[in-house]
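A reminder from the course coordinator: this example appears on the midterm review sheet, so study it carefully.

Given structure:
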């Protein structure tokens, strides 16, 4: 069975870019336009990798991360954001609380997205 990647981002163009970059790689892709929708998707079937935005209306990425990790502590999460500085304090608190994640700066090029997926999922 192919690996499942969940893309959680409120920006449709970002979700589209991830789907375009990963569409021919053989992964099963699922997208969510909010933290809540992402959680629901992840609880229906735990993904192998999550690409997660930080700045979203409603539940932000840090809270989404906390809830995802509460359900699946070893879940591979890549936070992809242009707002790392703005969220540095809550991200550091999440790390201090033992939550593991990787951080990548937007925008990511297609090859960078594919490389992250390969490294995480084919290791």
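Designed residues:
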């Amino acid at each position: 069975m192919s690996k499942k990647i969940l893309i959680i981002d409120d920006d449709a163009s970002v979700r589209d870019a991830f789907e375009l970059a990963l569409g021919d790689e053989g992964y099963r892709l699922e997208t969510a336009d909010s933290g809540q929708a992402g959680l629901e998707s992840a609880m229906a079937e735990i993904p192998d990798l999550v690409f997660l935005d930080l700045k979203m209306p409603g539940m932000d990425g840090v809270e989404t991360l906390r809830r995802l990790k509460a359900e699946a502590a070893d879940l591979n999460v890549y936070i992809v954001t242009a707002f790392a500085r703005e969220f540095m304090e809550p991200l550091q608190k999440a790390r201090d609380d033992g939550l593991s994640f990787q951080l990548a700066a937007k925008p990511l090029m297609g090859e960078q997205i594919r490389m992250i997926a390969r490294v995480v999922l084919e290791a």
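Residues 4-121 form a domain with the Rossmann fold fold (CATH 3.40.50.2300). DSSP finds five helices and five strands in the chain.
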